[in-house]
């Protein structure tokens, strides 16, 4: 697509024009050949190989991915030749052939995915292949395909832990495995495994917001599935608050602050995530939690008094705190004014936001 | 007529970036006009799948630069029409498959050129045909849209659909309420939105989701304080914006973040002067065009979003852009009303 992070090169003089023209010619002939074969409905394995060749040169050429789908859809309905059938296969020959085609294709495309991990069309095409497997093959086979995908996506996320295509694909894989297990009669939830996976990812990179985000989405389901009572729910909140303290050892970790804000949101009245963790908080409980967290944050000032995130967190939590317990003297207006002044001094980019915050908090 | 999204052939690394930078209007106009003539470059052929997008990006950039007639109108329309398929959808280039992404660009180009009449002249009932292609891609159960018949779903397509349908005046063909509900199901605790339910907030997807809520006049559903804070946190010390926490800055986020802030009336939450300076540093001042970051290769994608970002901040010499449609404001006033 658009060029990202490609350094500007010297003028056209440095280009090998003859070589480039040859490259264009080869590419164009391949494009013409593939398109001609498809318009003649030549949906053969040979043409499939041609599309592979073309897509390796240009995986963004979305129409070629569609050609590939057409070829495979055609191949799926073909009767296998006798040479292709062997006795030790568990499936009827026709299904075995489909299995082989899908399995070959999935394997073949791994290299392309590793080379172009941000190409929408490749991820998307993989999803399609898996959906085809689900429709055309026994559930157990589809499950084993999806399980392999789980391994693949873990590898992809190990290479780039923030790749949002990867995270999104992972959610698809998990949802599909869960759905298929339901179909085969014994629903298996993967929420515990996925939660453990985010923990693992977080420990290998505390700034991995993608993992923190996924955690925020998994916790409500996890608690529901554990049938967690009020005690267990409070325990979860406490554990998460401990974990985030570890991440906040570096007070400049923006991702950690964002997740901390999520946790505080779960104990804030009228927030969009108010009841996702603890459900029986009284105002008194909230006051205790807010004071404890704000005390901890104030302590961070001793480590780094020039970290704007600390002042911002204090101000935001103070505002909610005052909503919960307006008559309390734990937070003073003077203190809040000092924090705001510090924030203005440390972060001049967002002056307009601090102005609005000042009037919102009546400071 | 087609504009490739290929790179520029910039001169040399600019040794030191000057503090005061001027917008090189003429250079950018020349760069965009040159894009169609670069068939001797491999990149031109590799980017064929972006032709119609490229044309929309280039045309919009030229309008914002005050050179609306720099591309021959009839050639542009002919090219757009050559990408139309019998089912009413448009493909990236002739011979490619129709898709929502290109259908949206086609409608934007035709609206910009006041050419819906030309569409009708080419295809009887053309407007409705295009609108029906889009409407048929709605998933009536969830409210979101597929990109094409192969089933990819993404909040980008929901936005493309409503954007194009509102320009065509055919919103009644789809279940708008369901679309709005779908956007809500993509909301995250940080106030942002992702590619679908459960997905991490991402500035590009936020633009599309807030865009949907703007077009449908449901901005009341946005947590403006939280979203505004998240979006303004995207500005980095060098003035540029990133798309997610802990990522690098990139000129295109000047648009995705900037327009989202503008739609929720929070553009003043970032330092606009510093952002303008960052964008101007990404220009190739010799041969025109903008890059993702200073010193990188330019392309027409970053060129339009850099210019649109400058326009949001009322940079002198750039025409006013509409923060929802990424098209000139006066054109949106003409087509959908002020």
From TrEMBL, chain A:
Pfam families: PPTA (PF01239)
Region feature (Disordered): 1-21
GO biological process, one term: prenylation
Class of the enzyme per the UniProt entry, highest EC level: transferase
Catalytic activity: geranylgeranyl diphosphate + L-cysteinyl-[protein] = S-geranylgeranyl-L-cysteinyl-[protein] + diphosphate
Gene3D superfamilies: Protein prenylyltransferase (1.25.40.120)
InterPro entries, A to Z: Prenyl_trans_a
Coiled coil: none
A Gene Ontology molecular function term of the record: Rab geranylgeranyltransferase activity
One term under GO cellular component: Rab-protein geranylgeranyltransferase complex
Keywords recorded for this protein, A-Z: Prenyltransferase, Repeat, Transferase
Entry keyword Acyltransferase: no
EC code(s) of this entry: 2.5.1.60
Family, as annotated: Belongs to the protein prenyltransferase subunit alpha family.
Function field: Catalyzes the transfer of a geranyl-geranyl moiety from geranyl-geranyl pyrophosphate to cysteines occuring in specific C-terminal amino acid sequences.
Name of the protein: Geranylgeranyl transferase type-2 subunit alpha
Organism: Rhizodiscina lignyota
From TrEMBL, chain B:
Metal-binding found in the keyword field: yes
Keywords: Metal-binding, Prenyltransferase, Repeat, Transferase, Zinc
Cofactor remark from the record: Binds 1 zinc ion per subunit.
InterPro entries listed in its UniProt record: PGGT1B-like, Prenyltrans, Ptb1, Terpenoid_cyclase/PrenylTrfase
Record bears the keyword rRNA processing: no
GO molecular-function terms, A-Z: metal ion binding; Rab geranylgeranyltransferase activity
Prenyltransferase alpha-alpha toroid domain ranges (all copies): 24-327
Cofactor(s) needed by this chain: Zn(2+)
EC number: 2.5.1.60
SUPFAM superfamilies xref list: Terpenoid cyclases/Protein prenyltransferases
Pfam families: Prenyltrans
Substrates-to-products reaction catalysed: geranylgeranyl diphosphate + L-cysteinyl-[protein] = S-geranylgeranyl-L-cysteinyl-[protein] + diphosphate
GO CC entries: Rab-protein geranylgeranyltransferase complex
Gene3D superfamilies: 1.50.10.20
Stated role: Catalyzes the transfer of a geranylgeranyl moiety from geranylgeranyl diphosphate to both cysteines of proteins with the C-terminal sequence -XXCC, -XCXC and -CCXX.
Family note: Belongs to the protein prenyltransferase subunit beta family.
Name recorded for this polypeptide: Geranylgeranyl transferase type-2 subunit beta
Species assigned in the record: Rhizodiscina lignyota
């Amino acid at each position: 697509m658009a060029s990202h992070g490609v350094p500007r090169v010297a003028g056209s003089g440095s280009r090998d024009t003859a070589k480039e023209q040859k490259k264009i010619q080869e590419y164009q002939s391949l494009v013409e050949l593939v398109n001609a074969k498809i318009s003649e409905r030549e949906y053969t394995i040979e043409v499939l190989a041609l599309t592979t060749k073309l897509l390796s040169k240009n995986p963004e050429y979305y129409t070629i991915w569609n050609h590939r789908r057409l070829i495979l859809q055609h191949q799926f309905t073909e009767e296998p030749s006798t040479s292709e059938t062997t006795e030790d296969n568990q499936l009827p020959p026709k299904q075995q052939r489909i299995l082989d085609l899908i399995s070959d294709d999935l394997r073949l495309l791994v290299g392309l995915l590793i080379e172009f991990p941000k190409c929408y069309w490749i991820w998307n095409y993989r999803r399609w292949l898996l959906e085809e497997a689900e429709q055309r093959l026994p559930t157990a086979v589809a499950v084993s395909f999806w399980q392999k995908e789980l391994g693949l996506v873990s590898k992809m996320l190990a290479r780039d832990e923030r790749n949002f295509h990867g995270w999104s694909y992972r959610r698809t894989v998990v949802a599909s495995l869960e759905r298929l297990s339901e179909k085969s009669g014994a629903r298996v939830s993967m929420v515990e495994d996925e939660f453990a996976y985010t923990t693992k990812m977080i420990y290998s990179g505390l700034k991995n917001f993608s993992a923190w985000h996924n955690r925020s989405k998994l916790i409500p389901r996890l608690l529901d599935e554990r049938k967690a009572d009020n005690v267990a729910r409070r325990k979860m909140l406490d554990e998460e608050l401990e974990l985030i303290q570890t991440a906040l050892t570096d007070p400049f970790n923006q991702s950690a602050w964002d997740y901390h804000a999520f946790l505080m949101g779960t104990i804030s009245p009228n927030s969009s995530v108010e009841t996702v963790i603890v459900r029986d908080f009284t105002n008194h409980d909230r006051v205790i939690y807010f004071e404890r967290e704000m005390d901890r944050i104030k302590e961070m000032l001793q480590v780094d008094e020039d970290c704007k995130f600390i002042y911002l967190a204090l101000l935001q939590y103070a505002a909610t705190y005052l909503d919960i317990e307006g008559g309390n003297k734990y937070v003073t207006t003077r203190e809040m004014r000092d924090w705001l002044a510090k924030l203005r001094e440390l972060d001049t980019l967002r002056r307009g936001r601090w102005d609005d915050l000042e009037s919102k908090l009546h400071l | 007529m087609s504009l490739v999204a290929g790179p520029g052939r910039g001169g040399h690394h600019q040794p030191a970036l000057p503090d005061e930078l001027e917008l090189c209007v003429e250079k950018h106009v020349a760069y965009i006009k040159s894009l169609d003539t670069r068939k001797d470059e491999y990149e031109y052929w590799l980017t064929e799948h972006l032709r119609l997008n490229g044309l929309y990006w280039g045309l919009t950039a030229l309008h914002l630069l005050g050179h609306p007639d720099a591309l021959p109108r009839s050639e542009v329309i002919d090219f757009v029409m050559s990408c139309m398929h019998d089912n009413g959808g448009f493909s990236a280039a002739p011979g490619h498959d129709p898709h929502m992404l290109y259908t949206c660009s086609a409608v934007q180009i035709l609206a910009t050129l006041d050419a819906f009449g030309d569409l009708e002249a080419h295809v009887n009932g053309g407007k409705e045909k295009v609108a029906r292609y889009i409407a048929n891609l709605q998933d009536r159960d969830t409210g979101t849209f597929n990109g094409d018949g192969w089933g990819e779903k993404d909040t980008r397509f929901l936005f493309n659909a409503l954007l194009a349908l509102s320009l065509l005046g055919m919103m009644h063909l789809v279940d708008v309420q369901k679309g709005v509900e779908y956007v809500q199901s993509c909301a995250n605790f940080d106030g942002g939105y992702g590619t679908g339910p459960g997905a991490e907030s991402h500035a590009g997807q936020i633009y599309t989701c807030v865009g949907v809520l703007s077009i449908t006049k449901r901005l009341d559903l946005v947590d403006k304080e939280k979203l505004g804070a998240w979006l303004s946190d995207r500005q980095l010390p060098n003035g540029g914006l990133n798309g997610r926490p802990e990522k690098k800055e990139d000129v295109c986020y000047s648009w995705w973040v900037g327009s989202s802030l503008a739609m929720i009336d929070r553009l003043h939450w970032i330092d606009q002067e510093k952002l303008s300076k960052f964008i101007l540093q990404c220009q190739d001042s010799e041969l025109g065009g903008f890059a993702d970051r200073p010193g990188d290769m330019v392309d027409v994608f970053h060129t339009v979003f850099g210019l649109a970002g400058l326009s949001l901040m009322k940079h002198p010499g750039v025409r006013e852009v509409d923060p929802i449609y990424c098209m000139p404001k006066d054109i949106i006033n003409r087509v959908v009303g002020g």
